[in-house]
Design brief:
This protein is α/β, with parallel strands linked by helices. It has a single domain, classed as Glutaredoxin (3-Layer(aba) Sandwich). The chain is built from five helices and five strands, in the order βαβααβαββα. Strand 1, helix 1 and strand 2 form a beta-alpha-beta unit. The longest helix has 17 residues. The protein is globular, with a radius of gyration of 15 Å.
């Protein structure tokens, strides 16, 4: 990542706790709708867990995958097994008590960021950036 992301611009929703799924879900419907209108836009949900052995990661990934019945949701969910104490500061995420949302280009540049629940104002900001960035591409 981010080279493996499928879009020129990718909305990335990072969550740290399972109880944050309701917040994450506020972003997924609007992201799905924008992806349907913009062919070079994709979205991903990135739940994070602490680093684990290959066997534990395999067990967790399979458990999470089997718990997601929607094919699109499975394809857009990437579980990150990493050192969260290094990861959070690298992306200026001060706490695991909220979700963080990034608009990232194919080269890994963050064009926009926010945290928390989806709002109409945030949608307008994203749509403006995506429309502006796609001009001339």
């Amino acid at each position: 990542m981010p080279e493996d992301f499928g879009g020129e611009f990718n909305l990335v929703v990072v969550a740290f706790k399972s109880e944050q799924q309701a917040l994450v879900d506020t972003w997924l419907g609007p992201a799905r709708e924008l992806a349907a209108r913009k062919p070079n836009f994709r979205y991903y949900e990135l739940p994070t867990i602490y680093e684990a052995s290959a066997l534990v990661r395999f067990w967790i990934d399979n458990g999470m995958r089997s718990g997601i019945s929607d094919k699109t949701a499975r394809e857009t969910t990437i579980t990150l097994s990493l050192d969260k104490e290094e990861f959070r500061p690298a992306l200026d995420m001060p706490s695991e008590d909220d979700i963080y949302v990034f608009l990232v280009d194919k080269e890994g540049r963050v064009a926009w960021r926010t945290n928390g629940v989806y709002t109409e104002d945030k949608r307008q900001e994203i749509e403006t950036l995506v429309a502006w960035q796609f001009v001339g591409r």
